[in-house]
């Protein structure tokens, strides 16, 4: 049996050992299906005592899940019971199994998932009296800081794994408290209870003490929703200024007194605002600010335990790095986002497509093919019901990534015929979208991709006409100007004597000169 050393003197066995223990115990029990919760607890205790894993991992192995299956089961539980949406990832789960304490909300979710209580998952200590030497005391299962048995302690021979139920533990603690009260005179006991009630009220008051107004979080949710709707419809400079004002306000709220729950929600709102600011800064041509806000969004998402927010932040970072001609950094950002994205979410399609586009920008045709195939595979596995982000369906973002991203990629790889086909498909898809969902900047980039394909295929007149159409867009942001620059550079090099090319170059120069500088970022981001 393989094993690995830990920082202490204990030896932790390979997971295969725990799986073997599970199969052996299930076999002796007659392989019941489904496995009763009590038997799962027995298996977990045996794995803990024999293999040395922390309790959360023991419980997972006792059920027979991989980490990926555990995460998927948690997301399904949230969906089935209509709980608050989560951003749980495999990396977070592995951190918890390694000893990192989950936030209270995630502790509650994991206890629901495993139908048990925090002590049994190693999230809390049990301070109840130890069992008596004759075995008549309550049975329990370890009292180390993470729920493991202390050094040198084993289960009693012949007694099987020590365990207890929540009811037994509650009764035991209540008995200890009542025993103390019974020794006091009736008047003193009443005084003790009255003082305890007052103290409990003070505990509650302090836990709920906050400088936030009752509607602050609801207002922020509405504001972020409105900003996301305005993103593609209003000038980026105007939206940036408004979002920046709110980001500064949230930064101030994070310095004020608030509850732990409010702190996590404020961090999430701060992250969503910074994620939007990253895109707006990118649109305004400030890659440095865009990447700084994307990083802030990722960090705020980490602190809030919001994996999906982290993934969206890295999607923005991937695009900004691509337009900054840093394909390796773009690919790393996409992979970092994939590690945080919820399983079966349309964002996984987009991030795989981002990685494919980064490979193409780096001239890696094989890398593009592999990553784009992963995007197509992820798209086929999407559930029938698409999630929403601030009231908007995110499935189109996955669909769009499968058409314009390969168009751009095939341009970079020099495969003009395939680029033309994908660009025509992308343009048709954008133009067919409902008016409220149209994205002028995406349409402009699709026209430029189509123009580059025509230029590579020897049709400069068509390319120039499409270039002018792109610059006619109501939203000529920096990504449009950047791609138009690629077009004019190629046309100037391939067709130096075309006077029409000079006209397109002059128009692009005028559009570039109209850019507006950004205000300074808030402190603490």
Q: Summary?
A:
The protein has 23 helices and four strands. With 525 residues, it is mainly α.
Q: What do you see in this structure?
A:
With 525 residues, the protein is mainly α. Among the domains are: 158 residues, no CATH class; 34 residues, no CATH class; 116 residues, Serine Threonine Protein Phosphatase 5, Tetratricopeptide repeat (Alpha Horseshoe). It has 23 helices and 4 strands. The strands form 2 sheets. Strands 1-2 form a two-stranded antiparallel sheet. A hairpin with a 5-residue loop joins strand 1 and strand 2. Helix 2 crosses helix 3, helix 13 runs antiparallel to helix 14 and helix 21 packs antiparallel against helix 22. The longest helix is centred in the middle third of the chain and has 24 residues. The two termini are 49 Å apart.
Q: What are the main properties of this structure?
A:
525 residues, mainly alpha, 23 helices, Serine Threonine Protein Phosphatase 5, Tetratricopeptide repeat, disordered C terminus, two-stranded antiparallel sheet, 65% helix, 4 strands
User: Would you identify the regions where 5 or more consecutive residues have pLDDT less than 50?
Assistant: 1-9, 131-183, 520-525
Rg, rounded, reads 29 Å
Helical residues, percent = 55-70%
Shape: globular
Strand content: under 5%
What structural class do you assign from the helix and strand content? mainly alpha
| Count of helical regions | 23
Across the major sheet, the strand order is: 1-2
Arithmetic mean pLDDT: 80
N/C terminus separation:
49 Å
Give me the strand/helix succession: EEHHHHHHHHHHHHHHHHEEHHHHHHH
- Please count the beta strands (DSSP E, at least 2 residues each): 4
| Biggest β-sheet description | 2 strands, antiparallel
